[in-house]
Every structure is written in C-alpha cells, then in structure tokens.
Amino acid sequence: EMRPVASGGGSVQAGGSLRLSCIASGSGESDISWYRQAPGKECNLMSTISSDGTTYYSDAVKGRFTIAQDKDKTAVYLQVNNLKPDDKAVYYCAADSGPCELVVGTNRWGQGTQVTVSS
C-alpha cells in the first residue's frame, strides 16, 4: 500500500492561490484529508473528502479552501485561495480523517509540501 504523496506547495504573496495535490492511489475507499503544521504550532486537520464526496472544512479555511477528488479517486486536490501569512505551514495529506496524533507516523500519513505566504 502506497503512502499518500503531497505536492504543489510554494511561496506566494498574501491573497495568492495554490493548488495542492495528493496522490493516494493505494488508499481505497479511505477518507483523504489535508492537515497542516506551522513551526512551533500543533498539527491541525484542515479538510477531508470522503469516498462518497462528502467534504469537511475547518473554520480556519472554510470559504477559502476547496477539496476535490478525481473520478478514479487516486488523487485529491486542495485549492487554496486568498492565502494569509497565518496559512504558512507544511501541508500534509493522509488517508484518514482522525486527529493528527493518531495519524502521524502511520502508513496513512504522507509527506508534506511547504506553503509560504509573505505579507
């Protein structure tokens, strides 16, 4: 089973946008989630998409981030708009929707991609 792989991060100015990608071809019918962790801060769940297309967004990103999956459910995308300096973090995708502390370090946790936002 392949671990999810995140990509698409970069450096943008405040107000900018990025499209993050998560390749999760070995995840079957699992929920796919995006988490983020900024230096010195706790890891937080940002958004989840279930196999039936149901989505969840945290209050911090609702209205600015959009999660979507492709038809064969091998990739999940996170469109991040109107980025703020507080959005600067490493973004991780995972084949799970639980709290970070239960997912980090498991084979459901993928590599991260850095998002940097300058003011």
Sequence-ordered SSE layout with sheet pairings:
Elements: E1 5-7, E2 10-13, E3 18-23, E4 32-37, E5 44-49, E6 55-57, E7 65-69, E8 75-80, E9 89-94, H1 100-103, E10 109-118
Parallel strand pairs: 2-10
Antiparallel strand pairs: 1-3, 3-8, 4-5, 4-9, 5-6, 7-8, 9-10
What does this protein structure show overall?
By secondary structure, this protein is mainly beta. The chain is 3% helix and 46% strand. The protein has a six-stranded mixed sheet with strand order 2-10-9-4-5-6, with no helix packed on it. A hairpin with a 5-residue loop joins strand 5 (44-49) and strand 6. The radius of gyration is 13 Å and the shape is globular. The protein starts with a strand and ends with a strand. The mean pLDDT is 93.
Helix coverage percent: under 10%
Strand order in space, largest sheet: 2-10-9-4-5-6
H/E element sequence: EEEEEEEEEHE
Instruction: Choose one word for the global shape.
Output: globular
Seen as an oligomer or otherwise, the chain set is: single chain
The helix count comes to 1
Give the termini distance in whole angstroms. 40 Å
Could you tell me the radius of gyration in angstroms?
Answer: 13 Å
Strand content: over 45%
Number of strands: 10
* Main β-sheet description: 6 strands, mixed
